[in-house]
Design brief:
single chain, 4-stranded antiparallel beta sheet, alpha/beta, 8-stranded mixed beta sheet
């Protein structure tokens, strides 16, 4: 039996280092050195050793225990112990993650910690909450800050700025430092969210007549959809990179042709580029950003798929994108609300429309949250009787400047770039190896339980995994159904649509689990329809137990009756029939 990992090593994309490879041509990028290829294969071999050689599991009860799996994992990746600072931070500041859903549906950066939220409420002590294995009796919500929409266009906001509260100034300066941006080079604009930042830039960018928008996305993106809608209204030519099946690699020849084109460099337009796919984790070479800049394109770098601190790998002194977008939410695993950040390079301001008629929707100010009058319930009084006297807490509106603690960013700084990137690399590749080991029983062809799309075991991949679950007949189980059952088992997954993928009709039928079409009319030839998938994203606070539980849950689909059992179980518990 062949190892399921065989042949998974792929060409490194040079992310995370700043050798001459970054600025190499497309052809030289494809010709990696022997040492680089050997390094990739060594990583695959090490990853495969985290489970028994050629291990295949056809029964969820046959999986090795959490303890045994962790021992094998740490033997294969001894440097994982250097990242245990993240576990200490999680235990002290994010202890809610131990009793809430496993969060595989977050991308972005958290500002505050859960413990910080608890401390901010009178009558609640962190010690009392953390000493219990259960959540506090009273659900606590603290907004920390509110947003207020501003009536100003993007060009004016970047050039003239405006009045800022001490809170907004503190948050802006801290984020600039966290992202390693100099205020001499970039301006930061707060937006309502990531989507607003994309639309705002599309509305404000000065496209030349018959200008171009060129994007590199292997999945459907709401933010990108808003940008393309705006460009369509302006008559902009919209082009998308194409991805091959099944590895979802960029069709380099086609992308280069679109990028170089036949037009004057001054009429290129806007190139929108993510470093990793937010859905599949596929890595993309920085070479594309360099090539775009050299050929007259303005570059928007979508950094939302990067883990905290990975922004430092961008080598801004080498590339310096014209625009960069990322998003921040309040508390990881608890409160995903927050805001988007649009960074504008000051030397690129002239690319923005300074017309007073330019769209202004989406720019916001951060203002101190207004606290509502407190009412103490009998339950709260009982809890407070057993707690020590709480320390006086400072509300944000009374805090002096830089006194606002963004502990979520502080924690990312503590773990550091190396800790975050290596921790994520070990965990995501281990769980991919584990998922690939699940195989339906009594299958003559060795049909796998899951299909993973895009980059598989690869030291350079991002921390997201796109996959689907298939039954023993080879038919795809509805991703929404899998997501719903995962939620009922305290696991939060995301769903997405893969698109811009070139495949033949047979591949299309196989990936959608519909078997061979009997009639021509059943063949789906329009790739714009997309492929519905599940996606799991790892954060720097994700631990080994989290990914093991994900593996353990998905292995239950090896039981042909698992879905039906779940339906009956919930009917018995709720005394009603639930559609799953």
């Amino acid at each position: 039996m062949h190892s399921p990992c065989a042949g998974e090593a792929s060409t490194p994309c040079f992310n995370g280092c700043f050798s001459s490879s970054f600025l190499a041509s497309e052809e030289s990028h494809a010709d990696t050195s022997v040492n680089e290829i050997r390094s990739g294969y060594d990583f695959v071999a090490v990853t495969c050793s985290t489970l028994h050689p050629n291990a295949q599991f056809t029964n969820h009860e046959a999986l090795p225990s959490l303890h045994e799996s962790y021992l094998n994992f740490t033997k294969a990746y001894p440097l994982y112990s250097n990242t245990l600072k993240a576990d200490q931070i999680r235990a002290q500041e994010y202890y809610h993650l131990n009793f809430s859903n496993l969060c595989f549906d977050y991308t972005g950066y958290g500002l505050f910690s859960y413990a910080q939220q608890q401390q901010s409420w009178p009558g609640t002590s962190m010690a009392a909450s953390s000493s219990s294995h259960h959540p506090p009796l009273i659900p606590l919500e603290l907004p920390f800050f509110d947003i207020s929409y501003k009536s100003v266009n993007l060009h004016s906001q970047v050039v003239y700025g405006g009045e800022e509260s001490e809170l907004e100034t503190s948050i802006r300066e801290r984020i600039m430092a966290f992202m390693n941006f100099s205020e001499d080079d970039y301006s930061l604009v707060f937006t309502a969210n990531h989507t607003c930042a994309f639309k705002l830039l599309a509305d404000s960018f000065q496209f030349t007549p018959n200008g171009n928008l060129l994007t590199v996305y292997d999945h459907k993106s709401d933010s990108l959809d808003e940008m393309t809608k705006s460009c369509n209204k302006q008559g902009i030519n919209i082009m998308s990179a194409e991805f091959s099946w099944p590895d979802l690699r960029i069709n380099m020849k086609k992308l280069r042709k679109m990028m170089l084109g036949k037009r004057d460099k001054k009429k290129r337009g806007l190139f929108v580029f993510p470093v990793h796919s937010r859905v599949t984790g596929s890595p993309y070479s920085y070479m594309w950003m360099s090539m775009a800049q050299e050929n007259g394109w303005h570059v928007l770098l979508d950094a939302c798929a990067l883990a905290p601190k990975e922004i430092n790998t961008l080598g801004l002194s080498l590339f310096k994108p014209d625009f960069l977008v990322c998003s921040f939410y309040k508390i990881y695993g608890e409160n995903p609300s927050g805001f988007g950040c649009l960074f504008v390079k000051k030397s690129s301001i002239s690319a923005l429309n300074d017309s007073p008629n330019a769209t202004s929707i989406g720019i916001v100010s951060l203002i101190p949250a207004l606290r509502k009058p407190e009412t103490i319930s009998d339950e709260q009084e009982i809890v407070s009787e057993h707690q020590s006297e709480p320390k006086p807490s400072k509300s944000l509106e009374t805090c002096g400047r830089l006194e606002v603690e963004l502990k979520g960013l502080d924690h990312a700084d503590e773990v550091g770039l190396v800790g975050i990137s290596s921790r994520g690399r070990y965990l995501v590749n281990w769980v991919i190896r584990a998922l690939m080991s699940l195989q339906h029983p009594s299958s003559e062809t060795g049909f796998p339980l899951l299909k993973i799309y895009g980059s598989k075991i690869n030291p350079h991949r991002g921390h997201a995994i796109a996959f689907n679950v298939f039954d023993w007949k080879g038919e795809k189980i509805d991703p929404f159904l899998v997501q719903k059952l995962a939620d009922r088992n305290n696991i939060s997954l995301s769903n997405a649509i893969l698109q811009n993928v070139k495949m033949n009709e047979q591949d299309w039928c196989e990936v959608n689990g519909v078997g061979q079409p009997r009639k021509k009319t059943m063949m789906m030839t329009k790739q714009d329809c997309g492929i519905s998938v599940l996606t799991a994203s790892l954060n720097f606070l994700t631990n080994f137990e989290d990914v093991y539980k994900l593996w353990s849950f998905l292995s239950r689909f090896l039981d042909a009756d698992f879905v039906e059992k779940e339906r009956w179980r919930y009917m018995a518990l709720n005394q009603e029939t639930l559609e799953v």
